[in-house]
Specification:
The complex is a heterodimer. Chain A is an alpha+beta fold. Chain A has one domain (8-77): TusA-like domain (Translation Initiation Factor IF3), CATH 3.30.110.40. Chain A has a 4-stranded mixed β-sheet, with helices on one face. Chain A is 28% helix and 30% strand. The longest helix of chain A is centred in the middle third of the chain and has 12 residues, at 45-56. Chain B is an alpha/beta fold. Chain B has one domain: Rossmann fold (3-Layer(aba) Sandwich), CATH 3.40.50. Chain B contains 10 helices and 8 strands. The radius of gyration of chain B is 18 Å and the shape is globular. Chain B starts with 5 loop residues before the first helix and ends in a 32-residue tail after the last strand. The chains are: A alpha+beta, B alpha/beta. Chain A binds chain B through residues 18-19, 21-23, 25-27, 29-30, 53, 56-57, and chain B through 1-2, 4, 9-10, 13-14, 16-17, 19, 22-24.
Chain lengths: 82, 272
């Protein structure tokens, strides 16, 4: 998981699309605008779709780090694009 | 924290993905209570889609038993259900579809004596008029005005259907538009005139859509509008309807202060 400080963290490597985004979305609903969420996700469909869906809903992806083991860590700011 | 289980996140994922729904919206749906009066052509598909959507409490009202002639359109009932009370058949279909739904059944004809108690039984949030006769339609309207409950009216006949939504204080009620019972035999029922089976699916599903939008607080309801649909010409028309300040029940000086049991011509209440 990401070592950056975030307000919450979620691991979605155990689910496939679209449950990946569903879980991130529900986790974000528990945060206030401006708070951040760390997301641990798989390569492939999740990394292709989740950041794009987050942007579509007005959230700002602050960083994406490739872990080299087929997983990524991204940090998203709730409502950061609103 | 979200109260949704992993199973619910998956079951309702196509809802939760919607920006206008999300986890919070799905929780609202799960916490909502909808009363479906009549489990026939309109009520069957309405109740089924509400159940699939996860409406947490669904009330089913019907006095009738399943008849073979119902099955051409009342898809909540199966061939093996013929002879069974419609509310029991409806309950079985819903419970098999979605264990999240708590079903309450009222195996009775709605009258002035019981309708307010039925609405109050679970303090329903929204009512679906899925009945097929004018006495019930006026009764449901008047009871909802008195109980300050929103409801969606609908009717289907032959290849035509219509619906409108009443929200207390937000637009006309059914009586603002239709005033009172039509003269006896002036309007045929679908028993006499026939109805294309899919009409209940189209209009009943639109009723369920209104219920879900009301629960979620999204979009624009058919308050102040009658939506009509003609399946032969494929024309939808949305007719603007004003509130009647002189309406006998929701107007400024109401003359109707208690529920009325209008008489239905005896032939209409035969089961076939």
């Amino acid at each position: 998981m990401s070592e950056k400080h975030t307000d919450a963290a979620i691991d979605i490597t155990d689910v496939v699309c679209p449950i990946t985004f569903v879980k991130v979305k529900v986790a974000l609903e528990d945060l206030a605008d401006g708070q951040t969420l760390a997301v641990h996700l798989n390569d492939g469909e999740p990394i292709q779709n989740v950041p794009r869906s987050l942007k579509d809903e007005g959230h700002k992806v602050l960083s994406v780090d490739q872990n080299g083991d087929g997983t990524y860590d991204l940090v998203v700011e709730k409502g950061g694009l609103a | 924290m979200s109260s949704l289980t992993n199973e619910q996140l998956e079951r309702y994922s196509r809802h939760i993905i919607l920006q206008q729904v999300g986890g919070r919206g799905q929780e609202k749906i799960l916490g909502s209570k909808v009363l479906v009066i009549g489990t026939g052509g309109l009520g069957a598909p309405a109740a089924m889609y509400l159940a699939a959507a996860g409406v947490g409490t669904i009330g089913l009202v019907d006095f009738d038993v399943v008849d073979l002639s119902n099955l051409q359109r009342q898809i909540i009932h199966q061939t093996a259900d013929v002879g069974k009370p419609k509310v029991d058949s409806g309950r079985e279909t819903i419970e098999a579809m979605n264990p999240d739904v708590d079903v309450h059944t009222y195996n009775e004809l709605v009258t002035s004596a019981n309708i307010r108690d039925i609405i109050r039984d679970q303090d329903y949030d929204f009512i679906i008029d899925g009945t097929d006769n004018f006495p019930a339609k006026f009764l449901i309207n008047d009871a909802c005005v008195f109980e300050k409950k929103p409801f969606v009216h609908a009717g289907i006949i032959r290849f035509q259907g219509q619906l409108m939504t009443y929200v207390p204080g937000a637009g006309p009620c059914y009586r603002c538009v239709f005033k009172t019972m039509p003269p006896k035999d002036a309007v045929p029922t679908c028993r006499q005139a026939g109805v294309l089976g899919v009409m209940g699916g189209i209009i009943g599903t639109l009723q369920a859509t209104e219920a879900l939008k009301y629960i979620l607080g999204v979009g624009e309801l058919l308050t102040g509008y009658l939506l009509t649909y003609d399946a032969l010409t494929m024309k939808f028309r949305k007719v603007k309807l004003p509130r009647d300040p002189h309406c006998a029940i929701c107007g400024e000086h109401p003359t109707i202060t208690e529920l009325i049991d209008y008489e239905q011509p005896a032939c209409d209440l035969r089961k076939h």
